[in-house]
Structure prediction request, 517 residues.
Amino acid sequence: MGKWVNSLWKKYETELKGQREMINSMHMGNHIVIKDLDSIKALVDKLGIEMVYHDGEQASNLTAEASTMARRTHLTDLGSIANLDLSELGAGKEGWLDNPNLLCALDTDSLAIANRYFLLVLDWSHPSAPAAFRVKIRPNLSPIEAEYISALEWLVFDDIRVIAIGTSCGYLLIYSLGGDLIHRQLVYPGRILRLRVRGTKRDITEDTTSFEEVCVVIPGIIARFDGSVIQRVLQRWYQETQNRFWNQSSVDKGLEEYENSSTLIPYQCWNVSKYGSCVDAAVTGVMPPPLMELQSSDRYYCAVTIGVDAAISAFRLSEDRSRSFVGAILSKVVPATFSTIASFSKLVWRTQQPAKKAEPKPQPFARALPLTCLKDHPRKGEKLTLSPSGTLAAITDSLGRIMLLDTRALVVVRLWKGYRDASCLFVERLVNKDSREHVKNDYCLCLAIHAPRKGIVEIWQMRMGPRILTVPCPKGSKILQPTYRFGSTFAASSSTSYKPLEVFFLNGDSGKLSRLN
Prediction:
């Protein structure tokens, strides 16, 4: 029995020794393989560093070459604001133009920059001349309501240039280039998001009804001022100012501002919050009345809004505020009733109350009929840009997409992806270079897309054309476009040389203003 057990133990011992030798050999092989892998990893890292270095050097060379090529062929320097002290606006900090509280408006040889409480107007005469301060305007804002500047735009007529300001309390302010308040009017209580100036400048091969307007966008509200009415108000103010100058009559400035602000400019106002509050909106043009509507001389407008609840919404706007029978009764009976009651109460109590300054009241809404809407959660509309005639609209959303909307058919006809935080402007490109004096038909409509995350500006031909140009855009830059000039329709339709839509680059770091050729 003992010999048998001893033989078993020896057999097991022999097998264990064999397995130990095999395991030792495996450990040795693994150690060698690990060393080889470490050597290979070191070689790969070295190769990667060399590739990154050479690629980075080559990319920097290509970027510098592309930037030089862009500056040499596609960009023309117009001026610089680097010589001015704009520290009050945040200049000197990286990306200071990206501040959402900073507003910019461009006009010929002039730039208006505003923060929440004041604005500066800068001028330059030619590219080699440094920019100069024109005027600093500090509006009289309400500290109780924490009022601030929320919108900025130029109003340019044939012989008049003024600056329009929208405030967070819904007031429209118009200032002269001398810093004088020309007009102050309450549009509607609420923050003015944008001031849009648009007129009869038509797209290529398009024909639209002529009109010129100033559109005020408030969350859920659209107001429209006729351009000719604003022009008459401005002309009357300048004429009265000139007469006072020649008569050498001293008038108190506060009284003068009060008299100017007491004259209200008529306008139309619509409530477009059917599908939620909007972040941007525009009146795209005149549209036909509904099929079953009574024929009248009133105009109907088409409005497009974008917002959080509905990415895109469209409305038919009517000029008539008392179309319905119930509305007519309320508009006539209610004011007469309150007037009668007030007169009767004065006769009974014979009280003489001190006269109080009447508070401005918002204008009643005209009728807005919803046409369609696009709800695509979590897509949210961010910015809206109209073509000159209003037949196309470029809309950016929170998903990094750009939609091209046909505002007549209310159909998205094109879509771009991968453009987060983008901004768009329509531009006209010269296609017929044979003639000396170019007319409108020598240009084609394009869309300029500024992709700040990519650091480029792309030019796409409308509507279904290819991408025809890519221009590097330095970080911290902004694309701008001069405001519409009232009365330019007659010049555009004449045989004289046509001035196309252009895009300008404002570099916040270098202070240079350039034009895209």
Remarks:
- Helices lie at 2-73, 227-247, 253-262, 325-349, 488-493.
- The CA atoms of residues 154 and 163 lie 5 Å apart.
